[in-house]
Design brief:
Blueprint: H1 36-51, H2 60-69, H3 74-90, H4 95-101, H5 107-110, E1 116-121, E2 127-132, H6 138-141, H7 147-173, E3 180-185, H8 194-211, E4 216-222, H9 228-235, H10 241-244, E5 247-249, H11 255-259, H12 281-284, H13 299-304, H14 307-329, H15 341-358, H16 383-400
Parallel strand pairs: 2-3, 3-4, 4-5
Antiparallel strand pairs: 1-2
Helix pairs in contact: 1-2, 1-3, 2-3, 7-8, 14-16
Length: about 400
């Protein structure tokens, strides 16, 4: 059965994408490959959420991900979305605030015991996520961070995957990319570490599956310990076949299969690649999202306005106004005096009157500025009001942009 190939049903109220919206994945329910029935369910889901007062994250690509996660069952998709929104509001004071202000300053120390990072892309242009479970030492990590902060960092990184990472990758590849390629290195994971490792993974995977659906593209589990493949063969019977096809369990001889998916120049040397970023691949965050040609400010930053940037903009505007007033003060001799050529002309007239006065001639010239209302600066009409408006306008443009 051939899949439909039709335009993505964008909604002008919610869909303001500046990157491609058609998926290269020719699977039912993906953008550009939906049926009329699926489009109708998309519209129904959006209407139901609007009726309950939801206004954010109702764009087409987001709602399609929730629908695919629940096999296009509208009621189940709606419940998943509502649960997600409730979680976003309650988690660490609110995810929208967290992504703006969270500072994982202990990252270098944490990464000594649990490296987890995004680094460049796979051959399909998707962000590459790498996690080294074998080094995990929760006892040591608890001395430099907390479990809550680890999960907060995880959530912030998920938010940055959605924007700016995936949009930048989509721009570079010229097609919509919605998923990541993950590498989980289990080298060093033994029976003694298993309880602590799996306990944290259960929390992390719960956040991923429940609140960030349809983000897994491929998963490579490398250096899997003895017996892991057997366990997975049992577990996969309970997983969706689509999900199972994304997971590859590899032992120590993973090089050929991994390099078939990840360009050697993008893969860190420790995994058989050629990449050796200055300062370490795990800290570089290198990828299209750092390239000015493809990177854009994330929407969560533009929407928030970023108070620090706003304050800095206001400060710069005030300093510019202050400097301008000082510069004008060097020319003006009275409040309301003209500036530029006009001021020079008046000064010349004043000089002539002084000379005439010395010869006994009376002055009929009014005092500079007398008889005038507040005079506008010819270089900046309406300076007092306009300068403030300009400062505010610059902020509004970034917020709306």
């Amino acid at each position: 059965m051939s899949l439909p190939d039709r335009p993505v049903p964008l909604d002008e109220k919610y869909d303001h994408y500046d990157y491609p919206t058609k998926s290269p994945v020719e699977l039912s329910g993906h953008p550009g490959h939906t049926t009329e029935e699926q489009d109708a369910k998309l519209a129904q889901l959006r209407m139901m959420l609007e009726q309950e007062g939801y206004k954010d994250r109702l764009d087409t690509l987001t709602l399609l991900r929730f629908l695919r996660a629940r096999k296009f069952d509208v009621n189940l998709s709606k419940q998943m979305f509502v649960d997600c929104e409730k979680w976003r509001t309650s988690f660490q004071g609110g995810v929208d605030e967290l992504v703006q202000h969270f500072d994982y300053k202990e990252r270098p120390e944490v990464f000594k015991f649990y490296p987890q990072y995004y680094h460049k892309t796979d051959k399909d242009g998707r962000p590459l996520y790498i996690e080294q479970l074998g080094k995990i030492d929760l006892t040591a990590m608890n001395k430099v961070t907390t479990g809550d902060r680890m999960l907060s960092n995880l959530v912030v990184e998920y938010e940055k995957v959605a924007d700016p990472r995936l949009p930048a990758c989509s721009r570079k590849m010229g097609q919509l990319l919605e998923t990541c390629c993950s590498i989980i290195d289990m080298k060093g994971v033994g029976l003694t570490k298993a309880p602590s490792v799996y306990g944290y993974l259960q929390q992390a995977s719960g956040i991923s599956q429940n609140y960030y659906p349809e983000r897994l593209g491929k998963l490579y589990v490398i250096n899997a310990p003895w017996g892991f493949s057997g366990v997975f063969s049992v577990v996969k019977k309970f997983l969706d076949p689509v999900t199972v096809n994304k997971i590859h369990i590899l032992g120590g001889s993973y090089d050929r299969e991994l390099l078939a998916q990840v360009p050697k120049e993008n893969l860190p040397k420790m995994f058989g690649g050629d990449c050796d970023c200055q300062g370490g691949c795990m800290f570089s965050d290198d990828g299209p999202w750092q390239d000015p040609e493809f990177a854009r400010p994330p929407r969560w930053a533009k929407k928030a306005g970023l108070e620090d940037e706003q304050a800095q903009t206001n400060k710069q505007a005030e300093e510019a106004l202050h400097d301008k007033q000082n510069a004008e003060g060097n020319v003006q001799t009275n409040t309301g005096a003209a500036s530029g050529p006009e001021a020079a002309k008046e000064m010349e007239q004043q000089h002539q009157e002084d000379v005439n006065a010395q010869h006994g001639h009376g002055s009929k010239r009014p005092q500079m500025g007398a008889g005038k209302s507040e005079q506008a600066d010819p270089l900046n009409p309406g300076a007092d009001h306009g300068q403030k408006t300009a400062a505010k306008g610059g902020i509004d443009e970034r917020v709306d942009g």
